[in-house]
Amino acid sequence: MKFDSVRLITDDVDRLSAFYEKVMGISAERPAPVFAELVSSSCTLAIGHSQTVQLFGAGSAVAAANRTAILEFRVHDVDAEYERLKPFVGEWVKEPTTMPWGNRAALFRDPDGNLVNLFAPVTEEAIRRFGGRP
To answer: Helices (H), strands (E): how many in the chain?
Structure first.
């Protein structure tokens, strides 16, 4: 089994896709107006309109209601990414901080309120755990 993607459900695919294009620095593929994918070398971030939920089962997901999952992106320099994204991010939950487990991290919310964590291993132990820097 290979973990391949995460899908966010939204009422505004255009807005959320444009936001993640800025965050990830890649263009979204749009195979349908109600669906977008941002494909990276490690994983795909899929964005589906709330209209697509009925294909999986009515009421199985609710747009902009996530309060448990955090999307995490390993970056080379958390502080540089923080500065780059400041103009686009409306809510920073945590400014760049070195965590007790050895990662430098910054946490923010996307336009739908989903949590996003940018992190980089900075201690020797954390760097070993991740097999080096990105």
So the answer is: 3, 8
36: its two tokens: 């977008």
Q: Domains plus CATH for the chain?
A: 1-62 (3.30.720.120), 66-134 (3.10.180.10)
Would you give the DSSP letter of residue 69?
A: -
Q: Is residue 98 helix, strand or coil? A: strand
Phi, psi values for residue 118, rounded to 5°: -100, 130
How far apart CA 63 and CA 49 sit, in angstroms, is 8
pLDDT in tens, 50-106: 999 999 998 899 999 988 999 999 999 999 999 999 999 999 999 999 999 999 999
